[in-house]
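Quick one: structure tokens for this chain, please?
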Amino acid sequence: MEKLRDNIEHIDVARLIAEGGGKDFLINLDLHLPRKDATNLLLKGGFIIILCKGRGGRVVINGKEYRVEGNNVIVLSENQLINYIEPVLLTENNLIALLPEYILRLPSPVDTNFFSYSRYRAVITLTDAKFDDLYSYYRFIHKEMNEEGRYQREIVSAIFSALILEILGEYERIYHLQPDMTIRHESLSDRFFRLLALHFREEHTVRYYADRLNLTPKYLSTAIKRITGRPILDWIHEALLIEAAMLLRTTDLTVQEIADRLNFSTPSAFVQFFKKHTGTTPKRLTV
């Protein structure tokens, strides 16, 4: 990853939204890909949800490779590194960009499973019918964003919340409804990331995931480092930090309650972990 650092184009979500005429939310139904030489992109300061029809392209997001074919939802969050291996040819491409502050103002907190699932499976494939369903949300949001009305903000928030739940439902279908039917056909990294997305709140050790995969901790650690370029503990810790930050920003849970939810032995252990990896305390994040 260090070798790529000088060839990375940063995508500042706040700037993207401002240039599109938005404040903390932007929807675009005709997004163009970055220029061809911008093959390494780093997302900063927000979230992007892309609904697209792709042909023949491959993309690597945080060390995981995806083939973008057919109907896709791509969910990108802060600090994700995107590498294009092959050009992604798109026949339809629609984008929603939003700042974390927008999520804070939603009528009810977004299920944080959405962010943990999407962090480790950024690209999922949809049926034609589901793609059409989600596209109808995009069109409705786009229509409301371009109209003035007394309840425009409330309507857009409600539709966006429904869109998130629809996408979350697709993740639930992939992760929960057919676990035994798909896991045998997935790569080792896919199996690890699927287990991580489901169990990171309770299980923080490499041994747990190695045991579930019938491997030794050393073998799994070596394999994940080779496949993704990052140590396996980085992925486990990052999952915890993202979840902790989202809970701190979007809920009224106390530090102790979050420590319990994330299975830390004590609140002080959670605070020390958080400060070690972020340089700040959980309380300062809520100010």
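The beta strands are 9-12, 25-28, 40-44, 47-61, 64-76, 81-86, 89-98, 123-126.
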